Amino acid sequence: QKEVEQDPGPLSVPEGAIVSLNCTYSNSAFQYFMWYRQYSRKGPELLMYTYSSGNKEDGRFTAQVDKSSKYISLFIRDSQPSDSATYLCAMSAGYSSASKIIFGSGTRLSIRP
Amino acid sequence: GAGVSQSPSNKVTEKGKDVELRCDPISGHTALYWYRQSLGQGLEFLIYFQGNSAPDKSGLPSDRFSAERTGGSVSTLTIQRTQQEDSAVYLCASSLAGKEYFGPGTRLTVT
Question: Which residue of B has its CA nearest to A43?
């Protein structure tokens, strides 16, 4: 079993829809959770960074962490065609660079105009 | 400030040749990762350097792959006797305070 599981998609939704992207994990030591966005032929870029359980909002994006269920989500409101990309979740046990970051396999998202 | 840079951006090589891929991390970042990403696939972890600790090489797919990081900064990923299945984008990332920043990648094509 992988430490981090993520549905690869592809996920296709109409413009303006609310998108929900999810990851599950098995290592209860994970405390830091990230979402990356990767456009085609580009490197991943950090989108959201959260610590422990709870919600974090940034514009149209909300990251949610439920440590009791070992489940994290990224919600995108009022989705736009420019949101079409692959979204990767990532997590680590510690704050310092000594804690290895583990990635999910990514979910490919397509927003239809 | 400058981000993570990688060179070359594209590399075409013949099967059996050796290649070297370079990564310049963000200054001051103590951790450095190499990943491989095939078309439409997720990130495949290759190797992880953290400070002066021994690198985590658990992701290297074969002994044809090696990497070094000199002076805690620049890193080179070497692939010996390249095979067609080595064709992929090789991504480097550096990390500080738990946040990872990626370079643009090197697209390797083995003919």
Answer: B104
H and E: helices and strands count for chain A: 0, 11
B87 pLDDT more than 90: yes
Residue A96 touches partner B, C-beta closer than 8 Å: yes
Q: What percent of chain B has pLDDT over 70?
A: 99
Question: Which of A23, A10, A42 shows the shortest CA–CA distance to A102?
Answer: A23
With an 8 Å Cβ cutoff, is A7 touching chain B?
A: no
Pick from A32, A36, A44: which is nearest to B98 by CB?
A32
Number of residues that make up chain A = 113
Phi, psi of B65 (to 5 degrees): -100, 135
pLDDT at position A113 is 92
